[in-house]
Amino acid sequence: MKETDPTGRIDGKTRLLGLIGNPVEHTLSPDIHNTLARLCGLNLVYVPFPVESGKLGDAVRGAWALQVLGLNITVPYKQEVTAFLHSQDPLAAAVGSVNTLVREADGYKGYNTDMSGLLRAMAEDGVSLEKENVILLGAGGVGRAIAFLCAMKGAAHVWLLNRNEKRAQEVALEVNRTVGRNCVTAGNLEQWRELPKGSYLAIQATSVGLYPDVTRAVIEDSAFYGLLHTGYDLIYRPGRTRFMALCEQAGARAFNGLRMLVYQGVEAFELWNRTAVTREQAGQIYRMLSEKLTENGK
Ligand code: NAP
User: Fold this and answer.
1) Would you say the CB of residue 277 lies under 6 angstroms from ligand 1?
2) How many structural domains compose the chain?
3) Measuring CA to CA, which of 3, 41, 48, 258 is 20 to 30 A from 223?
4) In this structure, is the dihedral angle defined by the CA atoms of residues 38, 42, 43 and 45, taken in order, positive or negative?
5) 133 with 190, same domain?
6) Ligand 1 in contact with 182 (CB < 6 A)?
7) What is the rounded distance in angstroms from the CA atom of residue 126 to the CA atom of residue 76?
């Protein structure tokens, strides 16, 4: 792609990227992609598109007709959008959830860069899933995808604990059937008390503790945190959640979800532009978002 005008002017060759979801007003994705475009010298603009219920197909077809280069998809459309794609990346197809659409010759191809971004973020934070005993808290959209990711990336075992135990049971059944081994065991949020003795990586994939509900953690009992060597919270608002504080008080390492947010964006940007974002550029995005969230007091 041709270098952007140094004044940042939109011209006849500007390509469009965007985010489809509802709501989209509080997204940080325009900050990520418009800054990456500038850092990489690409003539792109990224904008949010709020899409009403029942209009997703129209939105994707319209984007295709308008030559939109790529789209992110957010809540509530990550599953529904799969019906409007021409193909899917194997990881996205396995987890049944797509957050990135890449324009190809015959239509949009779906990817799940939440998952590839999480892996890249974890690698940078020195956290691996391989051979790990994982306690996964939450079986919602992202929790479900992470259960697949853990199973596919060689975790030793996953204890999937969710308030709605039935939901966790369904995910466990589906993952175990797909990967052909019994690597996920489901339970409710009290069943950490029954886990085998060991040292666990906990991934916090519930919405408990998310701004403005900052004083709560999904499990409050400090004995739970004594089981962990690392706690990985997917929440990044606030930057230090109560879950992270409880991990650190028990001597475990703790991380928030900001690096995952950055790398899901970086991975999408790389797919759209067939380019590589350097670690330094990703670091610039991370610092920019960190400052923005701190300024906003979140
Ligand atoms: P979701 O589908 O709405 O799932 C919400 C999850 O939270 C479910 O497991 C739900 O349990 C649980 N939960 C909600 N309220 C609860 C409560 N009061 N007590 C116990 N559990 C409760 O949401 P999602 O899309 O999977 O997102 C999950 C989290 O990941 C959110 O905090 C989101 O901000 C974060 N996230 C971060 C990134 C990133 O880039 N860092 C990307 C995506 C998502 P039930 O099944 O029992 O309702």
Assistant:
1) no
2) 2
3) 258
4) negative
5) yes
6) no
7) 31
